[in-house]
Amino acid sequence: MAKRGFNGVLMRTFGAQDHIATVIDKEYLTPKYLRIRLVSPTLFDEAESGPAVYLRFWFPDPDGSGVEHQRGYTIVEANEDTGEFTIDVVLHEPSGPASTLRLPSNSGHPS
């Protein structure tokens, strides 16, 4: 069972729901700026898309401890009918938990 700590409790208190998103495409806009297209069949049943709408993602700690870390990303494009949406990610160094999104093997796998 993943450990989300205080942030997890806080998000649940405010009614946040979990949804699984699958990476379907990636494009490097620059060497440190990645555009990621995802799909989630249930996300837009509860959430809306539009200007300044953002999502919170949970990522496993790279050390394998079972702890999850939260990161927020603004939706830059969305299709509520298909459940597809796009986020842009800045790739920091040293890399953190969300850096797993840049790996080519993640395409087609839940994130």
TrEMBL record:
<dbReference type="InterPro" id="IPR017927">
    <property type="entry name" value="FAD-bd_FR_type"/>
</dbReference>
<protein>
    <submittedName>
        <fullName>Siderophore-interacting FAD-binding domain-containing protein</fullName>
        <ecNumber>3.6.3.-</ecNumber>
    </submittedName>
</protein>
<dbReference type="GO" id="GO:0016491">
    <property type="term" value="F:oxidoreductase activity"/>
</dbReference>
<keyword id="KW-0378">Hydrolase</keyword>
<dbReference type="InterPro" id="IPR017938">
    <property type="entry name" value="Riboflavin_synthase-like_b-brl"/>
</dbReference>
<dbReference type="InterPro" id="IPR013113">
    <property type="entry name" value="SIP_FAD-bd"/>
</dbReference>
<dbReference type="GO" id="GO:0016787">
    <property type="term" value="F:hydrolase activity"/>
</dbReference>
<feature type="domain" description="FAD-binding FR-type">
    <location>
        <begin position="16"/>
        <end position="111"/>
    </location>
</feature>
<dbReference type="Pfam" id="PF08021">
    <property type="entry name" value="FAD_binding_9"/>
</dbReference>
